[in-house]
């Protein structure tokens, strides 16, 4: 590497969770010194980075430096370090004790978040724990001024211009006197760190500043103000960021203080910097918790990007950092790809960060054989006990598979195992465990096909590695293709301990032809510290329409921010010529939430590009279209100041002379058997050496596997470039039964197709419902319409689209042609309710129909008697909007715009005399329909790639096999459930069948009756809904597809294994719904509430029959409001039901929905509303041994007249408890008039609300589980009765 001036050492350190890597530049040495230490080794040293510096200084000076004395600094020029201290504290929840300070009415805001649950099939609906211990509410409030108020001279005197340029009114000044005793109370409890988030503080930060000043004056050690950290609109992510910062910064500061204290007084003259999550360095004084979470991984991105791009390849790079428990994936194409918001360990952080995606697959991922398929992860064996080969009694992991195959060479792996930590990896124990697994696998295969050949240990190990590779390929495809890039056009930049073992296989699967492995791949995160620049960021909010005036104002703000960051860099010793600046505007189209941080491009003549043009280009690239005649809005102004360091310089090697030296030969198992494989050491190879595969190259502690049909070239910088002879190979799989390895791979591939369709739909749609609330689903079907894979987006869509596809297949018959696209939304044609429009595309191969792809999206407007197409009082389908049974949206490649416009604008009204309004948002409908067509086309492209790789016969065979695999999983679950129920009761009937009957009521008294019969021998179940009430004169009738969706959702939750969602889940199941019941209504019936209300009740009945959990809130609480200028729609969460081992979760979307809630600040910014309260409804969850989750309270004041519609349930019949648990509370809806009258609205109503009136919605709680005896005293018990008969807890 580069020379070291002044005879001083330079240190780059990455303190990871398991190992600490040190790279040091030493005077007089062309190569750096590399050292790897255990991060935690208390018997030998207190701190790994200090120990690494001490050891290298001892080597260099020849002088002993006892661990008890301070490290001398006279020989140190600089230290750069990344650390996982913050990451580990967040993951392990070992941060500082903190409290949260919020605006009154929003005590539970961060706990609720966007109200979605992380895992839709987890019945506990568990969410990550809060970082704060206590919450204090502040009496203060600011509101934004409406456009119509701005010209009001009488009121204008009370307006204040916010930082963003928006006008605000201080409704209530901060009450410091009432706040002071609350803060003192926190100090008395030992809490001295505070996170502060107040409504609209992004533009009016003065109340937060006052809280911080008061808290610090009282003795708080640290205060994180959301407006100071991330002055961006959206209270939830801003508040979560403040919480993370308050939680982590004291921990980080304590560690850094301890680190710095270990050096002598000369450290003040040493440049000490720390890596931030954005890839830039910062001094200790500016290194804070919320910017430290990706400190280590960021070093790796800097490392590969600055040493490989343009130096080793012109291709954009995919960073592939494979560690023990996870793999980090990133992309670099000339500039760092950053995101402004990410979720880490369940916490949202809103700050500039490198776009690093983490996959739960690594060397420690557990290997399992389950339901006839190989499964890798997501669980990890951890560092202790670790894989079997670690000699600690661990379980089989990916590392064991690599050891069996020869990808890990024990002779070159540290002998640090066994009781005395002096033993090598245990190959024999690993092989014995694989033999046991082989017996299980081969026994299963013989049971499926008596002629099946036994799989060898090596074939099984290779199978697991292949499945692990496919697991890691899925997120790489998503990372690139969701942004409009072709994965195959990239080179794979591979680093990390395990990455080079998998590099060739990963690249081949992705269609890449080039792999790059850095010479320091094992310590690249540490090396990257020395390549990073010092970064200072500044950002302010600015709300304006993009135009000549706003550009001038934005430039003025840029100039101010630029001076600020330059001054900070100059204070750190950077001269003007070493400072670069990047300026950004955060822009979005009006009416969308999708903002893009647009960097200003500077031409060679010094002129800057137009931000709007750059924005449109980026939007087109990422989303595939432009929005015509739509204003572009400015959201934020940002400046990134860069102090260019130019520290480490790559050194070129001399051309090699002679042949590469072979260190030995080892047996390595590839797909076609064992190969006698030469092993080389990178340190003994020179520039220009070419090594054909198969080969092993030892790169320090990392093993590089060069597969057959590949060749490794040593570059002039000492790195390894592997060229693939060909891209994806065609694979033929011909067996009577499914190959257990290929079964897992095809599961991944089919699900990957559905997921990528979903990402395409989200990218190309324009409506908030689809793009932001994620109210859509995408799926892949066989030629018979049977479901193959359904990406789990919205549960109420699961399995339901199969009925739709089959209805269309029967309707069109042989009239389907290549280039046709079908559209439908009618309930009698397999639909759910009219707003859910399904677009179906047949897939042809050589003229033969081979698959279908389909996407279903909720369109916010489809016509009907009320805006938003969710009328509470509809009695017939025609009142709910445009109903389409069958139409070719695209016919032989031509978009039928005129025909679809006619269907949407002029709903069929043959059976009534009224003129029912058509859609009020035609252009949005057309745009989203085109997005659905594009999503389907993406699916077709991926299916055809799969057919090209494997052949049609194989792909269709595995289409069937994955369905059989899901069927087997459900059968095993049903057998287990039958065994459990029969052991708990005497319900065993004839021929080993178990029969259970359950029912529940809708609020009007309509009964859902279920007779569930389970055959314990065959693993089959019958869901008989005979006894269910007839079709209702209302809109909570539910088409049969909704019942099927509810059943398949419940089955998937009960299986508790990550099986694909397909038709196989329903194969062991018979569903009987009596015709004419409100679960199988006529084609004239109103159904808009069936999808969103009745579906939840069906789910409760099914799960109660299985005794799985108590009832959840049983409702989606659908709220729509608007006038002739706008419309708004949301669903509101509630309490989930408790289960045998869990309390219910509070304030969460339950079961059949998982859509997001609009952030409170966005809600008030874009609509004429004032949100008084959004929080948990205390004591609304049912009491019991396990308590049901609490519902929510939402109080909205309307600031101008609007029409409000509420469509809700569980206002009469409460969510039931189970096993002796108490019922959850009923919900309630109230109108609070300006004279403070509180009027009960019932469960379903439409109201013309006046300015100043308040809508109060109390959502139901979840039922409790188990006996009340231990917990009755602390909970309010709610009666199962009409809401007027008891006191609602608010």
TrEMBL record:
Residues 10-216 form the Hydantoinase/oxoprolinase N-terminal domain. InterPro entries: ACX-like_C, Hydant_A_N, Hydantoinase_A, Hydantoinase_B, Oxoprolinase-like. Residues 561-716 form the Acetophenone carboxylase-like C-terminal domain. Residues 238-537 form the Hydantoinase A/oxoprolinase domain. Signal peptide: none annotated. Pfam families: Hydant_A_C (PF19278), Hydant_A_N (PF05378), Hydantoinase_A (PF01968), Hydantoinase_B (PF02538). GO terms for molecular function: 5-oxoprolinase (ATP-hydrolyzing) activity. Transmembrane segments: none annotated. GO terms for cellular component: cytosol. Residues 739-1267 form the Hydantoinase B/oxoprolinase domain. GO terms for biological process: glutathione metabolic process. Belongs to the oxoprolinase family. This is 5-oxoprolinase-like. It comes from Gossypium hirsutum. The lineage of its organism: Eukaryota, Viridiplantae, Streptophyta, Embryophyta, Tracheophyta. The gene is LOC107909008.
